[in-house]
Amino acid sequence: MSFDYDLFVIGAGPGGVAAARQSAAHGARVLISERDQVGGTCVIHGCIPEKLMAYAASFSHVFEDADEYGWDKVSDRIDWHKFMVAKDRAIKHLSKLHIQHLEEAGVDLIWGRTKFVDSHTLDVGGRQITANKILIAVGGEAVKPEIPGIEYAITTRQMFEIKQQPEHIAIIGSDQIAVKFAGSLNGLISKVTLIVTEERILPDRDEDIRATVQQSMIKNGIQIFCNTVVEKIEKNKDCLCLSLLGNKQDALTVDTVLCAIGRVPNLSGLDLEKAGIQVKQGAIAVDEYSCTNQSNIFAVGDCTDRPHWTPVAIATGRAFADTVFGNQLRTVNLECIPSVLSSRPEAATIGLTEAQAREKFGESIHCYSQRFQPLFDTIAEPEQKTLIKLVVDTKSDKVLGAHMVGEYAAEIIQCLGLAIRTDITKKDFDATIGIHPSAAEEFFTLR
Length: 447
Prior knowledge:
This protein has 447 residues and is of the alpha/beta class. It is 30% helix and 26% strand. The chain contains 11 helices and 23 strands. Helix 1 runs parallel beside helix 4. The longest helix has 26 residues, at 80-105. The protein is globular. The N and C termini lie far apart (66 Å).
């Protein structure tokens, strides 16, 4: 049987674009479909605009200390409209670059909502197209809790579309997305209240990271209500009233409510059942080669049950292309993935937390940590301590995890990632000479 294409990719996000380009490089005839903007959630509505917002927020902290370094005081109020226009311009540029890269790779692009007709046929806005192999890379979507008045809350995607800066925003959520928005909006001089159902923010992170970030956020002026849930949201003229239950049994009045409690695979409207594709717990089930229960249909990224990180989607997308079209059986090691909290304060981690390590290795775990004042604060007003931490198995001397809160945490932990994945030991850290003066050098002085 002949097909219109060797590969049809549904979704032009990071995983889909990476797989399409790599497959085309192996000689496959590739078509990719997209119903929004090319680039996916990360580029258009997620990681990139979130990082740009964090950059914008960082200026207020620098301006606060400018006079300590001999500069005159600078305005601490952002022009929200100007920032949003600049952000949109940067996002459009990145999206165009992705389109250009697809064109240069020889990948065809079609716009429209895509759904399955059968295991080899897709419908794109009424047009039917056949393909030998199909890759699903549709990403995820934000979810909201089922509480009265939740329709008045916005999602993280809508956060980048609002016309006016919030004066007082309530953020519902405790994970890295909720926390990074809280830190960034606080830096942009909005009043921020973070509502957390757990005892502390960032439930999956190392306890020292959680405590340090939370203390720093509170010191920076963010209200954090822990062990608290929102019972309902009511609209009252130009404000929203939240009824709270828990540690903070009170009413909270704000002008904006942001719901950031998580994301789920974006599978609605795909008609997966027509292709017989198996879904488990709301996600597409795949094997180590990204193959579904249908031998010609694959899936990568946030629509699967794998870790929902952009680099994971890109890596598995390329591995799929090499395996299916490059005659190179390739899998992706999903252990020890670094992650970052791009906000104020910045935090990053790789490997096991102290609790995870003790559960796995018991009493042989020893942690080395240090808190210190950044060099910048020796002149400026001290804001927060930098925290660094290594989790070590004393039996093997292997470093099992590295954690940091402070400036440049993402860049430092990223570089330590390769070392930890290759079984670096604490003796290797001790024998390494650092760059002085830098925050990173402190990892090599821990004793």
